[in-house]
Design goal:
single chain, mainly beta, Maltoporin, Chain A, five-stranded mixed sheet, 4 helices, globular
Length: 614
């Protein structure tokens, strides 16, 4: 124990000023926060200087939509979230459009408009894509059309034809952008995809992309794979753009090896398709005067020339080509070949006030001959009224097109639209003309559009579906009238529907009598709980129904299946990564869109898309 004197001898206790200490600590903290905020702002300014926005690369013209509720259109994110694995699947949800596929995603796919093949025209960055495969007689195989490198897709619904406008991926940021997609699933389906893009301080652009998929359906022995490479180099400054793009796709497809059905005659294919486009452009098609000069080269080469297939040659009686009105049943064969076709396009226009004018001239060189296809479009908009006229002369397919469209908005809750088209032969060509009509009316209820309409197609000749099976024939058909209805939009918070139904007077050639598609979905970015927008969810259930269609052969008709299928989709996006899952035909319906070719049963596809800002 210490003595009292010892206690008194110790140093006195010094009491600390806790108030002063707290003020000092608080001041230090404030100074630290201020320094951190200053540093954050400095880094933000550096990033802003490092990542600048450059003038966008020029884009092709897309017509102003006159359809009720707007034209069917998808931006880059919507294309990947649509659930469509092919262009045909994207178009199949539109009234009057019917897609036929002979198997899974590597199998041939064709699209009919009111039962007529060859009435879908595809434009990529302003260049019309020509069907160059020697096996398809001028028709597109929609399984060969790449979607992965696109920035947006817009469908222009005409009275008797559909025009699909595709525009390739563009970037404006100088910070490099990278993305990786990996998908796998049933039927040994595997998809690998990668993107890289960057703008430089001088406005230069470098964009690269690659896509590979492979499938193997052991049930039907369908096997296929496709590897596609895409690149863009160029520069954009102010209103000027000079750029070039190349898309090269190698495709292999093997048909089932054992099938008792004698109609199974799709030949094995090993081919390469190339589309190269060079462009000089000034201005923007949506704002003021503009023009574009494009030079392109398209080619399609089949590397297994020992296979003999149907080609467009005259029959022994001197009639027309296979599938034509003069010679619908004649079969001739020739070896596969390499076909190429240059296309030069000079196009431009002006947008002033209520008037929008544009014109184009397409020059093609084909089989030693040069053809010039001029076209002109005029669009007028004044208040609720919109009018459009399109005229075109195409020596390549020997027709002249004239189409007039109009729409009228009745307040903000109603709208009517319609179009009429006339296809007539060029002088000296012995073929019938054709008339088409389309009318539609719609009411807006909240965020939904409810529409109904009718379509009419004149007497015409239907080309053979030779991409699906070489035994199918062309056939003449009388006038066709159909009625359709749609309901699209969100009706309760983030819950919406996408419904469409089509009814014709009767079952017909390459055309079902009834065709419906219903999609119930929840699409939410959950902003109420996550204001940053870093989380979004898409959940959808889809139902498809179709009745039989006739497929003419030399001995009669074959019928496709009447069927209904159910599917489900789920997409979850967290920051820049998106996880997707598709569950198709989960009730296991057995059906054939094309007679003799059973479609896949229960099929799941799942994967991830992940973007990086380097």
């Amino acid at each position: 124990m210490l003595a009292a004197s010892d206690v008194r001898a110790q140093d006195p206790v010094v009491r600390r000023d806790s108030t002063a200490d707290s003020a000092t600590v608080a001041a230090a903290r404030r100074d630290s926060v201020a320094r951190a905020e200053t540093e954050r702002l400095r880094l933000a300014r550096l990033r802003a200087l490092a990542d600048t926005i450059k003038s966008p690369i020029a884009r092709a013209e897309v017509p102003v939509p006159l359809a009720v509720g707007g034209a069917p259109a998808w931006d880059r994110n919507q294309l990947f979230a649509s659930g469509a694995l092919t262009l045909g699947e994207l178009l199949d949800r539109l009234p009057g459009v019917t897609t036929y596929r002979a198997g899974w995603i590597s199998a041939p796919e064709m699209v009919a408009i009111l039962g007529r093949f060859g009435r879908v025209r595809i434009f990529l960055d302003g260049v019309e894509l020509d069907a160059l495969s020697s096996r398809l007689n001028g028709q597109h195989d929609f399984s060969l059309i790449d979607l992965w490198q696109l920035d947006d897709a817009t469908v222009e619904m005409g009275a008797e034809e559909v025009r699909v406008h595709l525009r390739s991926w563009r970037i404006v940021n100088t910070t490099p952008v990278t993305r990786i997609d990996i998908t796998t699933g049933d039927l040994q389906t595997n998809v690998y995809r990668g993107f890289y893009g960057r703008r430089f301080p001088g406005g230069q652009v470098v964009q690269l992309g690659g896509n590979h998929y492979s499938v193997n359906d052991r049930r039907t022995a369908e096997a296929g794979d496709q590897t596609s490479l895409w690149a863009r180099l160029g520069v954009a400054r102010g209103r000027w753009t000079v750029d070039g793009t190349v898309l090269r796709s190698g495709r292999q497809f093997t048909v089932r090896t054992e099938n008792p059905n004698p109609s199974d005659s799709i030949p094995t294919m090993d081919g390469i398709a190339t589309v190269a486009i060079g462009r000089v452009a000034w201005g923007d098609p949506g704002n003021g005067p503009w023009f574009q000069a494009l030079a392109s080269s398209q080619s399609f080469s089949i590397r297994n020339p020992s296979t003999t297939v149907i080609d467009s040659v005259e029959g022994p009686d001197g009639g027309g080509p296979l599938g034509s009105p003069e010679n619908p049943d004649t079969i001739e064969v020739s070896n596969d070949t390499t076909r190429s076709r240059p296309q030069f396009v000079l196009t431009g226009g002006i947008s002033r006030g209520f008037l929008r004018l544009s014109g184009a001239g397409r020059i093609r060189r084909w089989r030693g001959e040069t053809s010039i296809s001029p076209s002109a479009r005029a669009q007028f908009e004044s208040g609720p009224l919109m009018l459009s006229v399109l005229g075109e002369r195409s020596p390549l397919d020997s027709v002249q097109r004239l189409e007039a469209s109009g729409s009228l908005r009745l307040g903000g809750r109603a709208m009517i639209s319609g179009s009429v088209s006339r296809f007539s032969p060029i002088e000296g060509v012995d073929m019938p003309g054709s008339l088409g009509l389309r009318a539609e009316a719609g009411l807006r209820a909240g965020r939904m559009w409810l529409t109904g309409g009718a379509v009419y197609r004149d007497t015409t000749f239907l080309p053979a579906a030779i991409a699906l099976d070489t035994i199918f024939r062309g056939a003449p058909q009388g006038p066709v009238t159909g009625f359709f209805a749609t309901a699209r939009g969100k009706f309760y918070r983030d819950v919406g529907v996408d419904l469409s139904g089509m009814k014709y007077a009767s079952q017909g050639t390459y055309r079902p009598q009834y065709e419906t598609r219903a999609r119930l979905y929840v699409d939410s970015d959950m902003r109420a709980k996550f204001p940053s927008g870093n989380l979004s969810i898409l959940l959808a259930v889809t139902h498809d129904y179709r009745t039989q269609a006739f497929f003419p052969t030399a001995t009669g008709f074959l019928e496709s299946s009447q069927y209904r299928t159910w599917g489900a989709e789920l997409e979850i996006r967290l920051l820049t990564a998106t996880i997707m899952f598709q569950y198709r035909n989960f009730l296991g319906a057995e059906y054939a869109q094309v007679p003799g070719y059973t479609m896949p049963s229960v099929t799941s596809v799942y994967g991830i898309r992940w973007s990086f800002i380097n």
